[in-house]
Write the structure tokens for this entry.
Amino acid sequence: MSKSSNNTLGGVFCGRQIAPGLYAETVETNRYLIRAAVGTSHATRLGEVFCAATGFQAMTMAGKCVAREAALLAAAVALQGQPSSHGVHGSGL
């Protein structure tokens, strides 16, 4: 990941900025929550990226696998083109 500092948007910790408007928060070893900035006030969850010996797998918040890539950034970018499932599962917590 890039060496940029940790970021918060709208009081929510978003992790490290890996591309303009795209953030990766380490949830646990080899597991990242991916968020995209919505303006400058807040971010929305796009999905998660999991790292395995074979590469990085991107999954939407609804659990749909959308990409298998060689790099975290490529997998995270693949999530940007997916429809948002924010709020689909109850309160979104």
